[in-house]
């Protein structure tokens, strides 16, 4: 699919929405839209993936969906964490993020697929939004998509896409805004200001209200879900003084109180971490936001204006789309956020698709063409063979004439043999030179040993590595490797509270670890720069000269 036309599929907790998007000047148009409701027990999270697979099969079959697609995972399927790291070069940022993330997530980093989005940088620290999903979930999800006849181009996360949708729908807005996207399993809270954005995903959604109703009336979850939709849409026959009506209203009021409390807690957390102002307005989105009384409840508890978010501003709908815009605006925020991601100067997003799966799926899509090409290649010699057979007699005569002309060239065969021997001798010399080039494996091993020393030391990284070679006129040659790096000081540096002797021992311990390499025979005392700590920075630069064994050159 060309870059001007995309297939974006939002796999939510209760429905799957697929949209064909095409660029229209500075904006875009939704050419085709299809929605499939998920049929499974919403109280069973493990059943979601199979329901998504069934929905994708139905959409692909009934709406002729095929080719590459961008998939969006819901907030309840991903882990979203805001972390702060030291300001480092972009090339080193992933390694630092991985180290910090491992300390902040509840499972090993190798068991997840992750990506990150920078949300703030003050020159000293970088604020990063870390988004991850379990590897087995991603693998199973990709398998379901492939079974439906689609090729995964990328996997995005719904938690970060509301930021793009808000920028695209309301360009130039600079008012502190809280966008609340109420889904079936979770609610996404997006705090947006002129300085950036902050995201928090809470495990409170429409299914929470359903479960509360099921517990109150003693009915299964599926029956409570059906009753909820009938009652709050006005299709039920309950009167205002009916006991069942009172139970449903009490459950809704309890849900709204919990939602208001979580929003208040999130605002306090946002102001503490970002040192920002409280939101001046609240925008509601998601089908769960249609709960009667929610707008009034939030406006009363938060003391700000509350209104519904319209992500369709600036979006053109094809004439064949007959769904009402007031219904579409509650379910297209994530798709519009992904579609507008590349159009915005500071669009946010992540890609949770592993490179290995991406290559595998790309190859799978080419298999039919490769089979056809192989068949054509196998049949190609047959016409040539038939023609060859017809003119073979003529070729035999030409061969006899050629043989008579070969004799003069046979006398040159001896010279060719001598040239061949010379070429083989040169080839052997070239191989010896290549053997010297292949000694680069020493460098690979040396770097691996340095990396092990850094991992063991913790909170240490290298910024520079330089090789010093000197060959004096008299005496042996010297061969040194100078490494420069920094150590993260986690203790407070205010009031000269840092113990320099302890830090010196840590660096000297790192130096001793470097000396354990088979390529290093000794080292010179480390040079430590204390001025950074005196200036209030939590990093300690150092430099170490490693003397390399000349018998094992790098």
| Secondary-structure arrangement, i.e. CATH architecture of the largest domain | 2-Layer Sandwich
Largest sheet: 6 strands, mixed
- CATH class category name of the largest domain: Alpha Beta
Give the total of domains.
4
Shape: flat
Helical stretch tally = 17
Mean pLDDT: 84
Query: How much helical structure, as a percent, in the residues?
Result: 40-55%
Question: Which parts are unreliable, with pLDDT below 50 for 5 consecutive residues or more?
Answer: none
Total strands? 19
β-strand amount: 25-35%
Could you tell me the CATH topology label of the largest domain: Nucleotidyltransferase, domain 5
Distance between the termini: 48 Å
Please describe the topology of this protein.
Layout: E1 5-11, E2 15-24, E3 27-37, H1 48-63, E4 67-73, E5 79-86, H2 90-102, E6 112-121, E7 125-134, H3 135-147, E8 150-157, H4 158-169, E9 177-182, E10 187-193, E11 196-202, H5 206-217, H6 221-232, H7 243-274, E12 281-285, H8 294-302, E13 305-308, E14 315-317, H9 325-328, H10 333-339, H11 355-379, H12 381-390, H13 392-410, H14 413-437, H15 440-457, E15 460-470, E16 478-488, H16 500-515, E17 520-523, E18 527-528, H17 531-534, E19 539-548
Parallel strand pairs: 1-4, 3-14, 4-8, 9-12, 12-13
Antiparallel strand pairs: 1-2, 2-3, 5-7, 6-7, 9-10, 10-11, 15-16, 16-19, 17-19, 18-19
């Amino acid at each position: 699919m060309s870059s001007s036309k995309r297939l974006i599929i939002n796999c939510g907790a209760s429905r799957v929405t697929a949209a064909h998007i095409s660029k229209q000047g500075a904006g875009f148009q939704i050419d085709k839209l299809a929605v499939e409701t998920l049929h499974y027990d919403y109280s069973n999270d493990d059943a979601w993936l199979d329901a998504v697979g069934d929905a994708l099969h139905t959409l692909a079959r009934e709406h002729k969906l095929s080719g590459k697609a961008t998939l969006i995972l819901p907030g309840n399927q991903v882990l979203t964490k805001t972390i702060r790291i030291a300001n480092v070069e972009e090339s080193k940022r992933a390694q630092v993020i991985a180290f910090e993330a491992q300390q902040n997530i509840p499972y090993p980093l190798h068991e997840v697929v992750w990506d990150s989005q920078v949300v703030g940088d003050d020159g000293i620290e970088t604020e990063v939004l870390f988004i991850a999903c379990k590897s087995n979930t991603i693998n199973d999800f990709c398998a379901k998509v492939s079974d439906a006849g689609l090729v995964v181009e990328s996997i995005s996360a719904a938690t970060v896409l509301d930021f793009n949708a808000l920028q695209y729908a309301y360009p130039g807005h600079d008012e502190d805004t809280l966008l609340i996207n109420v889904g079936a399993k979770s609610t996404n809270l997006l705090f947006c200001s002129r300085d950036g954005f902050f995201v928090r995903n809470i495990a409170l959604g429409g299914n929470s209200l359903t479960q509360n109703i099921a517990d109150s009336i003693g009915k299964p979850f599926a029956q409570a879900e059906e009753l909820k939709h009938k009652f709050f849409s006005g299709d039920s026959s309950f009167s205002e003084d009916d006991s069942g009506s009172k139970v449903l209203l009490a459950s809704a009021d309890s849900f709204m109180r919990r939602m208001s409390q979580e929003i208040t807690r999130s605002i306090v957390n946002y102001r503490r971490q970002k040192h920002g102002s409280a939101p001046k307005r609240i925008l509601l989105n998601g089908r769960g936001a249609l709960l009667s009384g929610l707008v009034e409840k939030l406006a009363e508890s938060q003391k700000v204006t509350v209104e519904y978010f319209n992500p369709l501003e600036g979006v053109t709908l094809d004439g064949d789309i007959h769904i009402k815009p007031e219904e579409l605006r509650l379910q297209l925020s994530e798709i519009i956020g992904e579609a507008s991601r590349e159009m915005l100067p500071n669009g946010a997003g992540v890609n949770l698709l592993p490179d290995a799966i991406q290559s595998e799926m790309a190859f799978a899509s080419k298999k039919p063409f490769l089979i056809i090409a192989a068949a054509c290649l196998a049949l190609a010699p047959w016409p040539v063979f038939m023609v060859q057979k017809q003119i073979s007699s003529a070729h035999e005569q030409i061969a006899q004439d050629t043989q008579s002309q070969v004799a003069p060239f046979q006398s040159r065969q001896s010279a060719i043999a001598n040239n061949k021997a010379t070429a083989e001798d040169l080839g052997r010399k070239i191989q010896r030179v290549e053997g010297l080039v292949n000694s680069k494996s020493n460098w690979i091993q040396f770097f691996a040993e340095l990396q092990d020393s850094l991992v063991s030391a913790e909170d240490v990284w290298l910024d520079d590595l330089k090789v010093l070679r000197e060959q004096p006129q008299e005496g042996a040659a010297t061969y040194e490797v100078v490494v420069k790096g920094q150590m993260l000081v986690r203790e407070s540096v205010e009031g000269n509270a840092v113990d320099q002797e302890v830090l010196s021992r840590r660096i000297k311990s790192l130096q001793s670890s470097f000396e354990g390499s088979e390529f290093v025979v000794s080292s010179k005392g480390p040079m430590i720069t204390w001025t950074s700590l005196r200036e209030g920075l939590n990093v300690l630069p150092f430099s170490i000269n490693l003397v390399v064994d000349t018998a094992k050159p790098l």
